[in-house]
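Blinded run. Sample ID left blank on purpose so nobody reads anything into the name before looking at the predicted structure. Input follows.
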Amino acid sequence: MEKKQIKIGDVKIGAGAPVSVQSMTNTKTDDIEGTLAQINELTGAGCEIIRLAVLNKKCAECIKDIKKKSPIPIVADIHFDYRLALKCLEGGVDALRLNPGNIGGRENVKAVVKLAKRNNVPIRIGINAGSLEKYLYEKDAPLHEKMVESAMNHIKILEDEDFDLIKVSLKSSDVQTTIDAYKMIYNMIPYPLHVGVTESGTLRGGAIKSAIGIGSLLSQGIGDTIRVSLTENPIEEVRVGYDILRALGLRQNGVNFISCPTCGRCQINLIELAKQVEQRFKNLDKNITIATMGCPVNGPNEARHADFGIAGAIGEGYIFMHGELVKKVPQENLLDEFEKIIMQNI
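Blinded prediction complete.
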């Protein structure tokens, strides 16, 4: 099946476009200044599309001013009230996230679709395992099949209105249910898929669930844009998202950090050193690999593929490039010297 490509603002989604990273603000959308500050912070971390909760008319009215100053495309997240969707479309929003089945009758859907089509604005059908139609909960079928059935029902509503600027998500807090739902729908529709594990939890657990769920789908070519949902600062969602993409070789912007596990040969505080290296170079927008290794015995050889690396020893450290020793440095000067060498050679 030939896959369709859409655009959210200037970001291409689907049909061979790079997998994009999204997040969602946790500010009050009617706090224009605070929301824009967070959008700018997320943009600096690499976020490419941002979603805003539109809870009421006041929030919807603020979309116009936020859109004017936002450096990245904005998606309005709307439930139940089709008038909020219309107001956001009038304000120039780049995309909508809604379910056409829960914004009222057919006339309401027609009004939203008509304006979205005129403005060339895509609509994401966002299916959540926790909020399916009542009849589906009573149906004897696996949850992922119910989710797909719900998505297909909503897709048909839009297609019946001759609208095809569609993106679809099918999220569950259960990793396997999420995977099964996306795999099932992938060959049923031509539309791009927004992938994520919803309500995945706090940073550590949520990152693990997201890496398994999102990563396994992306490794099979399923997924066009992602959001890592974490109970954490949205900045961490973006960072984990890029970590997943880099691990799969799908995106290469920013530093790829590698470090060895600790062992009996380790003669420095490797855990702390690795954290310091990541902290120092986390904002370096270069496609390079930096290694932090625990000893000079195996370090440079095991990390030979790294562009730059350090290996610890007793009271000192070794700096290497592409597996070749460059300099031996006292431990107290190691990070500063390491930074100098990196900046001189990138």
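Unblinding after everyone has recorded impressions. The chain has twelve helices and 15 strands.
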